[in-house]
Every structure is written in C-alpha cells, then in structure tokens.
Amino acid sequence: MNIVVLVKYVPDATADRQFEDDFTVDRVNVDGLLSELDEYAVEQSLQIKEKREGEEITVTALTVGPQAAEAAVRKALQMGADKGVHVVDDAIAGSDSIATSLVLAKAIEKIGAETKVDLVVGGLASTDAGMSVVPAMLAERLGLPQVTLASVVETQGDQIRIKRDGDVATEVIGGTLPLVLSVTDQSGEARYPSFKGIMAAKKKPLETWSLSDLGVDAGQVGLGAAYTAVEETAARPPRTAGEIVTDEDGSGAKALAEFLASKKFI
C-alpha cells in the first residue's frame, strides 16, 4: 500500500505573525512548524501501517511551501513516515486553495507513477487558513472518492470506514481504496518523535521538486492566479476591560441576563 500524507508548514500561532506587502502571510521571517492538525493525519497514516503487519506499506509526507517548509516534512519523518517530498517554487507564493490543490494533485500523481497511491490523508484544516477544502478538491482532481472529517478510522482489506461527528448525530461512512481521507483532532493523540525516530529521519529520502518537475505552468499558481485576495488588514484591537456586574441588592442575576441578551448571547 502506498499512503501519501499531506503536511503543511505554518506560522507558529504563538509568534508575532505578519503579512507581506501584498497581504499574503509572511512564511519566511517568522517561526514556523508542522501544522498541529496535520500531525493527526500523520498519526492515522502510521497507525494504518502498524495495524497491517506483514504488508508492504510506504508512508510519504508531502508538502508545498517555501524552503523552510522542509521542517514540516522532517517532523513527519521523525514521527515515522518513510520518505518525504517537498514542492518548492517561488511562483507558488500567494497561491489559493485551488492552485494548491492543483500542485498537490500533480505531486501525488508523480509519486504514484511507479507505485499507485492507495490513500491520501489530510488533516481537518491548516491552522493558518482553516478552510478545510483541500482534501475535497484533491479528490475531485484525482478522480477519487472522499471520506472526510473522520474522528475514528478503521480499515479492513481495501475498505475504509470512518465515524464523522456532526452537531446532532454521528455518521458512519465507508469507502473502497483508493480514496482521499481527512481526519479531525479527535481521531487520536499524535505521537512525539522519539530519539531513535529523530536520528533515523536523517537517513530517510526527501526529494525536492519544482513546478517544472510536475508539469505545472507558473501562470496557474501564485497570487496572480488566485480567485480570492486580501485587500487590507488591520491589527487586532487591544483587549479592553470587562464589565463587572455586582449583586449587592439581589439584582445581579437580572443584570447579568440583560447584559447577555444585549450581546445576543442568549
């Protein structure tokens, strides 16, 4: 089985995140890391491999991003992925989800040129964009079925069955490989890289591809080809002091209810 897990290098949420002059996210002059939500995708990919003992299964971590994005692939390799692929090209900067899904799809097709890709695994969303649409776009581009937003993943033979938690009910959905799978942060705690894993990752193959390697024209990606664009940004306003509701004469509950109603919380 050939599994491709999608990993994204994102700005550290605890860092001072900035925008470039063109209002794209600065991914170079800020500390970055593997998106936390993608760690769950890596974990589920590794669990599928570990549960299917005796089968020859390869887990490839795939990312698209600037040079620093290699760190996201390295983290996945340290966790246990077998090899990595990093698509890096200056023309990709500013790409929206549509262009990103195109680059990812072409990379997955290239990975599967020798051995067919059976499963593509992604996270719930990236922690910087939070759109949750790339897995569905990939499924469309690759002509594969999709089972998305899984909180539980089970496999048997060429069958994948998931549980998807909604607001009022839990759905059980199944599909036959090959397919695209995305998992939520409820699917299982992601493992920490062990010292052995960190050392082993240094010897694992990591290929770097450009757009030309994938046969993608630069005019199809980047800010100029994006269907959406940020026109302006504003700094988050400073946090103001809250309103204190006193209850000296027994009217506190009424005052609190009126305050919550005025803010449309109730």
Query: What structural class should be given to the helix and strand makeup?
Result: alpha/beta
Q: Rg, please?
A: 22 Å
Major beta-sheet overview: 7 strands, parallel
Average pLDDT score = 91
Which outline best applies?
Answer: globular
Percentage of residues in strands: 15-25%
Strand runs, count: 12
Low-pLDDT stretches: none
Which series of helices and strands comes N to C? EEEHEHEHEHEEEEEHEHH
N/C terminus separation: 51 Å
Number of helices: 7
Q: Classify the helix fraction into a percent range.
A: 25-40%
- Placed side by side, the strands forming the largest sheet appear as 7-11-6-1-4-5-12
Produce the secondary structure layout.
Elements: E1 2-6, E2 9-11, E3 32-34, H1 36-51, E4 58-64, H2 70-79, E5 83-87, H3 97-111, E6 119-122, H4 134-142, E7 146-150, E8 152-156, E9 159-165, E10 170-176, E11 179-183, H5 195-201, E12 206-209, H6 211-214, H7 252-262
Parallel strand pairs: 1-4, 1-6, 4-5, 5-12, 6-11, 7-11
Antiparallel strand pairs: 2-3, 8-9, 9-10
Helix pairs in contact: 2-5, 3-4
